[in-house]
Amino acid sequence: MVQARLSRLQHALTERAARQLLRQPVTLDSYNGRLITVSGREYLNFSGNDYLGLAQAPEVRQAFADGAIAYGAGSSGSPLVTGQHKVHQQLTDTLCDWLGTERALLFSSGFAANQAMLLTLAAKEDALLLDKLSHASLIDAALCSKAAFKRFAHNNLNDLNQLLNHHNVAGSQPMVVTEGVFSMDGDSPDLAAMLSLCQKYSAPLLLDDAHGLGVLGPQGQGSAASQGVAASELFCLMANFGKALGAGGAFIAASNTVIDYLEQFGRHYIYSTALSPALCAGVLKSIQLCRQQDWRRDKLQHNISLFRKLSADLPLLVSASAIQGLVLGSSARAIAASAQLKQAGIWLSAIRPPTVPAQSARLRITLSSQHTDDDISMLVQQLRRAI
Ligand SMILES: Cc1ncc(COP(=O)(O)O)c(C=O)c1O
Q1: Catalytic residue (one of 85, 243, 299, 371)
Q2: Which pick of 99, 213, 236, 256 has the fewest CB atoms within 10 Å?
Q3: Where do runs of H (alpha helix) occur along the chain?
Q4: Residue 240 CA: which ligand 1 atom is closest?
Q5: Domain count along the chain
Q6: What's the domain range around 344?
Q7: Would you call 211 a catalytic residue per the annotation?
Q8: 0.90 surpassed by pTM
Q9: Pairing state of beta strands 346-347 and 41-45?
Q10: Tell me: the pLDDT tens digits for 289-334?
Q11: What is the CATH number of the domain that holds 69?
């Protein structure tokens, strides 16, 4: 019996390998944001999500270390038992002050926060309407939820309108879920227009801003703020601390009622060890720098513009964000290009299905404020050779 089960697992692994879809973790010898060392060799890193270079900022590292001395390494419990320290409260207060929301709740990861958001807030009589390219954490949550689940064409408001209309007539209560910056394509929905559409049908709008927070809007308030939409107009906002803020963990920010409800019924929140207080101290410093240091966002914008200008002849996806996609089609082609770039000292992972749709394997280039003009020129030169 056990042998049969193991054979089934082995078969799936072998089949995945045959389709060139096997993934392997890479162990870094060292990381300084712009540069990584793997197996003794140094590479220019164009695969991280540390868009503002805050993961390595000395002040953030120091705050993390001081936090461990002051509060201990771990929280020692789930938040509703003994896991909530003063620094957790400071962090949620800071998030509310930064983003203009009534309350915020912390989670161990963006994956867990998205699960909690959809599984807890959507009921049987609801219909979850998700963008076709939504992150796996949102799709899995919608699949597990008791609500009906439908997807609309990527960033397509006409398609969304039709779905909303259909559910309006059918009597179910739609909830719309989208992302501020899509993780694999780097593009964004028209959030102001989407919000008006949602308001027309009295449908709540839920936003995952994992790749927009810190990078976009005044003081890095994120995608909604950058498009003139106040966070308080969203039903809830999820974002994580592991991308532009350079740490780990996540939060949901919303009205008192939504957060009170998640606090009482959100199983991913209630039955999970609270974030490490040391990490919260690091995130607090990271938010402070993010809000104050516009130069980080300005430098990132400069790098994005330079990259787009130098690579105007390359078949890039349309994106004005730090995420730039170069679709190559087959997994074999993406792997070959990635290997050639590595030879040239550039670390750029091939992204393959099921992370992206079939036949759209790609190089996912991520830019950071830490890259220099020379780094970007070299990247574009080598991309041209590799594809
Ligand atoms: C759009 C989006 N949402 C959620 C997540 C999950 O966040 P975390 O890495 O904190 O679990 C990610 C990260 O991969 C993401 O890209």
Answers
A1: 243
A2: 256
A3: 2-18, 58-71, 86-99, 110-121, 136-144, 157-170, 191-200, 223-226, 256-265, 267-270, 277-292, 294-310, 331-343, 373-386
A4: 10
A5: 2
A6: 22-52+294-386
A7: yes
A8: yes
A9: parallel
A10: 999 999 999 999 999 999 999 999 999 999 999 999 999 999 999 9
A11: 3.40.640.10
